[in-house]
Amino acid sequence: MEIGQVLAAYGIEEATASVSPFGSGLINYSWKVQQGDAVFLLQKINHFVFQQPWDIAHNISAIGQYLGKYHPEYLFVAALPALNGRPMVHLPEAGYFRLFPFLQQAHAFDVVATPEQAYEAAVQFGRFTRMLAHFDATRLKPTIPHFHNLPLRFLQFEHAVQEGNPERKQLAARTLAELFDLRHLVRRYEAIAANADFRIRVIHHDTKISNVLFDGRDKGLCVIDLDTVMPGYFISDVGDMMRTYLSPVSEEEQDFSSIEVRLPFYEAIVSGYLQEMQAELSEAECAAFFYAGQFMIYMQALRFITDYLNNDVYYGQRYPGHNLVRAQNQLVLLQRLMEKEPLLCRYQGVRKSA
Predict the structure, then answer these.
(1) CB 179 within 8 A of CB 301
(2) pTM score above 0.90
(3) Are residues 83 and 141 both part of a single domain?
(4) Residue 39 and residue 165 in one domain
């Protein structure tokens, strides 16, 4: 069994260890490994999503060394070295594996239940980027090239409209029209990319609540799952928090009347993130805080509908029309967000203080 081979590469005998599946991650596979008093988290990297796994190891090593030197107080959960000293184990027939220490006094949430949780998570993601403000982000390799490149996602969408499933195009006609009507969001991104006031930073790129560890008092400890850490704009992290924290339901919800934008959660994201990043962001960046949510929700809608038109080759489907429903769900969330723009932008935190 491949697990036994992997454990042996770390000096752990499978016969003396208990191994059980762990977590709810959708990308990588994880197992909890216990041998006596020692507890570990074993993870298999999804080679389909991350086609250059050693780039992940490079990035995490570079970040870990920097934080260890300049911010030794930060809880950085690094992969343990194998017996050969390398940060990953590669089995040609099985894939790439890593072993982490399992922090038994910490826990994570799968869903944001309170504004306090949203605040703590926003603080942690803001702190992570702030602590790396003087790290040269160009040293990092793009582990998923063009991951949050909105103009490229729009081009992929246009190509799918032209070449995709004709029957599905008819079924999705109204959704396609709505997405084309929002093309101004792509132009806004292009303006951001051309603006020197928007700095390329070390960005996590996957700021769902489950990527934050909390202590026993539900205070944030650190961010985890650093596979998508790479150069980017702050709007990626803030936007992903808005997309996944603001509504009480996820993109899987088929009852669109349940989709709403919860103001206390928005305020928690603003105050938590800017507690750490206020002094780092330019005036132009602060003015784009609300746009971050528009950017990320719109891009995800584009990705869902593109996959739908391409016959569900990327996300797959659990029922007919699944990715169409997901895209429509995100469009409703975007509409709810834009309806509240005047109210949400009253928060003074979204503007650069004097």
Answers:
(1) yes
(2) yes
(3) no
(4) no
